[in-house]
Amino acid sequence: MATVQEVMDARDSFEELVPAEFRITNSQLHTLQVNVGYKCNIACRHCHLQCGPNRTEVMSHEVMQACLDAYKTVGFTSMDVTGGAPEMHPELEWFLREAHKQGVSLIVRTNLCILADPAYAHFAALYDELGVTLYASLPYYSARNVDKIRGRGTFDASIEGLRLLNEQGFGTGKHTIVLVFNPSGATMPPAQASMELEYKRRLEADFGVHFDSLVCIANNPSGRFAEALNAKDKLGKYLDRLIAAFNPGTLEGMMCRDQLSVDYQGALYDCDFNQALGLKIRPELTIFDLARDGAKVREVVFANHCYGCTAGAGSSCGGETA
Amino acid sequence: METYYNPADLANFSGDGVGRAASDLWDKYMAYYGSVFEDGALTKREKSLIALAVAAAVQCPYCIDAYTNSCLQQGCDEDQIFEAFHVTNAIRGGAALAHGVQALNVIEDQEL
Can you give the pLDDT at residue A164? Predict the structure, then answer.
């Protein structure tokens, strides 16, 4: 059977579809996405970064400090903290407090279910105290589907986590919590607005929990998701579906044009998916270079997994883009 | 093995396939078809579930394939898809059973 790379390379080049003006970044970048490490309390089937309880990669204190410095130097307007489960980083609280002191506009990506663990439940109060915006992944509004993707008991734990956050004012008017949906299989995501209504109706009626809005993210054909699809000989079909739905109207708003993603070692990428694939920015710089010199307009590193962000209504870490 | 139903034939449900003759009628049908499945008083999602239930009723394998995929694409899960099949089953079964009233009429007609 063909490898993931062979299947990806057998398709027309994504890069050739991108006009010159959209192959480069915006002159001012807005988001610094900080991946604090790959350790996670769960191992989701579709995780492109292949995170899980056995991963040990953790961002060092020096790299965290450089992220704070780079935020200022570059003039980013949002810091998007992700993982793994960021809460499992031993210095997350210090990092968030420093960022808050510095006036950073903070987004934290949480999987919700970790907050049901007494060892991490205190983060709900910290998020309230610092006024962060939460992006919380919840792949469906029922136990059967979520437990299939994330492991037994994770749905009930996620609802418990969401309830805890509701009590701290998230989704109830004080702070913003955005839920993140992505399909459980090889289908494209549904329209965001329609899925948000469905989630609201179900979660409020069945569990009495609340959230502000929902974003839909397409599964990117990389990492564990790509490997699992390819093992079933379905990767090519999924990729062809994305290619058939290619929408040139999504190119201008591709997230890679407006952000940088930094890994636990301080290496820089155009996005989290390129991080998963080890495709570093060109020229190859680190967060320490960025903290010292700021950011220049750069050419984005594209490959055929980028079809995942440009199909249909487009996809990014913030949901639809077109 | 040759069969009358071939998944690859679904691609010929197109202007180049079944629409190449009487193409003006095909075009009108497809314009109408597209409008039917837009969001309206019912959502696309609800319409996909109805379409799947009807596909099961008319036992069209092409439509079952297409609308199972459509339901997944609209964010439906396996439980919802199978509830749609049970709606079909209930109505098909119910339609048979409801015709029992005719048998009842015959029986009652024969009774003294």
Answer: 98
**Residue B79 included in any domain:** yes
Model confidence at A275, in pLDDT bands (50, 70, 90)? very high
pLDDT digits (tens, 9 = 90+) for A179-227: 999 998 889 999 999 999 999 999 999 999 999 999 999 999 998 889 9
Q: Which domain holds residue A72?
A: 4-309
Does residue A48 belong to any structural domain of this protein? yes
- Smallest CA-to-CA distance from B19 within B31, B11, B27 is with B27
Domain total in chain B: 1
Average pLDDT of the residues in B28-48: 95
Query: Is B47 part of a structural domain of the chain?
Result: yes
Q: Judge if the upstream peptide bond of residue A84 is cis by omega within 30 degrees of 0.
A: yes
Contact A144 B79 (CB under 8 A): yes
What is the C-alpha to C-alpha distance for residues A302 and A268, in angstroms, rounded to an integer? Answer: 14
pLDDT in tens, A42-75: 998 888 889 999 999 999 999 999 999 999 999 9
Interstrand relation of A78-82 and A106-110 (parallel, antiparallel or unpaired):
parallel
Residue A187's Cα: distance from chain center in Å? Answer: 18
Indicate whether A317 belongs to any domain: no
Window 258-297 of A: residues touching B by CB (8 A cutoff) are: none
Residue B75 to residue A181, Cβ atoms within 8 A: yes
Q: What is the CATH number of the domain that holds A163?
A: 3.20.20.70
Residue B62's Cβ-count burial label (10 Å; 0-12, 13-18, 19+) is middle
Task: Give the CATH number for residue B105.
Answer: 1.20.1290.10
- Report if residue B81 sits inside a domain: yes
Contact A145 B77 (CB under 8 A): yes
pTM: 0.90
